[in-house]
Amino acid sequence: MHRAAAVGFARSAEAYERGRPGYPDAAVDRLVAALPGTEVIDLAAGTGKLTRALVARGLDVTAVEPVAEMRAAIEPPARVVDGTAEAIPLPGASADAVTVAQAFHWFDGERALAEIRRVLRPGGVLALIWNGRRIDDEIHARITALLEPHRGSAPAHRDEHWRDAFAASPHFGPLREETFANEQVVDADGLADRVGSISFVASMAQPERSALLADVRALAGGGTVSLRYVVELQLTTRSGA
Q1: Confidence of residue 23 (pLDDT cuts 50, 70, 90)
Q2: Shortest CA distance to 117 belongs to which of 241, 29, 203, 14?
Q3: pLDDT over threshold 80, residue 48
Q4: What is the rounded CA–CA span in Å between residue 10 and residue 67?
Q5: Averaged over 2-20, what is the pLDDT?
Q6: Cα separations in angstroms, 199 against 31, 89, 145, 204
Q7: Model pTM?
Q8: Mean pLDDT, residues 13-42 taken together
Q9: In this structure, are residues 213 and 22 in contact, taking their beta carbons and an 8 Å threshold?
Q10: Angle at 140 between CA 218 and CA 104, to 5 degrees
Q11: CA dist 154 → 118, 132, 148, 200, 223 (Å)
Q12: 117-157 pLDDT, tens per residue?
């Protein structure tokens, strides 16, 4: 795992659960409607934000998550196992679908797609879902200006380098894509949790992190702010028999 993910998500599990947005019903319903069956592996499940939405819709979900502090937040009836996208600790052809929420950019794409194909049954579906910040909104632009000096080598969804693995992979067909709207209204504490849950922020030394989050809190101006997102849903089907 990238150090920012291993350290940052271990430190920020509680902030992640409090501060990260869930996924809108329309997007989750569309995802579920595309699945060929009910047995799902939620890969890099984090604190279970997508896991819970899938369980609520009657799916049989196994959450795979490498960070112990994140796994601890996921409750039954979902099953929870320690594992990574490159080494999924489940039998071959054991799932109808694999879901990945907010995480594929962390993976070794080539290895992960081969492993995801292994655990999917023929005709199985891989679904990616992301809450993408509306960088053109003033509040997100101001947050980005505070964050960029600290990003370092941490990968980002919006860089879209993760797409390269799909373009080169023989294991899956083309990505079918849809977008949805999402919004959070947060106060200063919620804004600090949202930004503090970002891996490279959570992995910063405490004095530097505290100073950054103080600047983030100030963006709320003593009231609330609206954080708008574009939710991306990408679906693709396992190739071959």
Answers
A1: very high
A2: 241
A3: yes
A4: 6
A5: 82
A6: 26, 24, 17, 9
A7: 0.95
A8: 96
A9: no
A10: 125
A11: 28, 16, 11, 7, 31
A12: 999 999 999 999 999 999 999 999 999 999 999 988 888 89
Average pLDDT over residues 74-83: 98
Residue 74 has phi, psi (to 5 degrees) of: -90, 125
Q: What's the confidence (pLDDT) of residue 4?
A: 64
Mean pLDDT of 182-209: 95
State the distance between the two ends of the chain, measured CA to CA, in whole angstroms. 31
* 231: phi then psi, degrees, rounded to nearest 5: -90, 120
Single-letter code of the amino acid located at 78: A
Q: Note if the bond before 24 is cis, omega within 30 degrees.
A: no
Kindly write down the DSSP assignment for every residue of the chain, as one continuous string: --HHHHHHHHH-HHHHHHHS----HHHHHHHHHT-SSSEEEEET-TTSHHHHHHHHTT-EEEEE-S-HHHHTT--TTSEEE--BTTB--S-TT-EEEEEEES-GGGS-HHHHHHHHHHHEEEEEEEEEEEEEE-TTSHHHHHHHHHHGGG-TT---GGG-TTHHHHHH-SSB-PPEEEEEEEEEEE-HHHHHHHHHTSHHHHTS-HHHHHHHHHHHHHTTTTS-EEEEEEEEEEEEEB---
- Name which of 123, 138, 132 is nearest 226 in CA terms: 138
Residue 35's Cβ-count burial label (10 Å; 0-12, 13-18, 19+) is buried
